[in-house]
Amino acid sequence: MQYITRTLLAALSITGIFTGAAIAEPLADLSGGQTGHIEFMASNPEHRWALIRGRLGPQQVITGDLMMPKNVAGKVPVVVMSHGSDGITTGMHEVWAKPLNEAGYAVFMVDSFTPRDSKKISGTGEQLTWNTTVNISDAVYALKLLSTHPQIDASRIYHMGWSRGGSAVTSAMWPNYRLPITKSESIKWAGSIALYPGCNQRYKNPTLKITAPVLYLLGEKDDMTPAPACVEEAQQLAAEGNPITYKVYPGAYHVFDRPNQPYRKFQEGTFAKCAIDTVMPSRANDPAPWGPAYNRATNQTLATPQERDAAIKQCAATLWITVESNPKAREQAVQDVLAFLALNK
After folding, report:
1. Is 222 exposed, middle or buried (0-12, 13-18, 19+ CB in 10 A)?
2. Cα–Cα dist 64/157, whole Å
3. Does the residue 292 lie in any domain?
4. Looking at the domain assignment, is residue 230 inside a domain?
5. Helical H runs in 107-163?
6. Helical (H) or strand (E) element with 167
7. Does residue 168 form part of some domain?
8. Total domain count, the chain
9. Residue 78 phi/psi, 5° resolution?
10. pLDDT 10s digits, 34-93
11. Closest by Cα among 207, 250, 210, 270 to 234
12. 120-153, pLDDT tens digit by residue?
C-alpha cells in the first residue's frame, strides 16, 4: 500500500473522504512494552554536518518492526537493522532476523524509505543523490527509543546494516552522530556490524574514538562497494586504537547474503571510483571550520565544501556492477555475526 502522510489522512477525515480508524500518534517511548509494528518520531537532517551540529531538521514519522525472541525471560539484547538501497528485503527477515531471534536477540527492523514515499532507490537514479544522513539519524532515534523498553537490555543494543545501511552503521558508530539525538553518553551502541558498506568516501575526526566494537563483512569481488577501500579504512582505524575488525569472503559479490539471487550484471550509480576523506566536526560546539577534505586519488587537499562537491561529482558514476548469492559466504557471515554478538555482550 502506498504510504499516505498523516497530514493528508487528517485532511481527508475532515472532509469526510476518509472515515477509517483514528490515526495513532507516533510513540515517544516504549515504556508500555510495545512490540510489532511501531511508529516513532525521527527527523530529516539536511546533511551530515547539520546532524552533528544538532540541526536535526523537520520531524519525520518512521516505522519499525520489533520482533522479540520466543520465551523471553528478563531483558534481552536487540539488533537495530538499517536496510540497503532495496529497502527491507526477504533476506533481512529469513537470513538474519530468524537466526537472531532463535539466538535470543530481539530485532528492530527500521524502514527509512516507505515513510518518505520511496520503496527503493536502487535503479531509480537516486543512488547518487539520496541523503544517507536520514538513514543514520533514523537508526540513532531507534537506539534512543529502544533504550526505554522494559524488556530490552539498554546496555546491549547493536546496529547492523547492509550496503547503504552499512554506511549508516559506519557513521552512527561515531559519538558525534549519536549525541545530538540521544543527548546522553549512556545511550550508545554495544556493537556495530556493517555488511558491504561504502568506504570510498570516508568521514572521521582525529580526536574521536569509536566507543564499541565494530565488524565489517565484505565481498572479495564486490564492485558496487569495493572491499579494498573498507579493508584499508578498518586497518587505519584499528591502528589508531579503535575496536574494529573485518572479514573478506572469497569470491563473494555485492549482496552475497541475499537468498536466491542469480548472477546478474546491471548499471547502477556508485561512488566506487571515489577516494575522498573528509574531516567532520567532533561535536555540536566544535569551533573548527569545515573540513578539510583530501582526494586520495589525486593527492589534492579540498579546502572548501564546493571543491569537495566538485570532486565527488567528478568521481561518482553509473557503472556495471555485479550481484549474486553466495550460500557459503552467507552461512559463514551468519555464524560470524552470532559469534561477534556473543563475544561483545
Report:
1. buried
2. 15
3. no
4. yes
5. 133-146
6. helix 164-172
7. yes
8. 1
9. -140, 145
10. 999 999 999 999 999 999 999 999 999 999 999 999 988 899 999 999 999 999 999 999
11. 210
12. 898 878 999 999 999 999 999 999 999 999 999 9
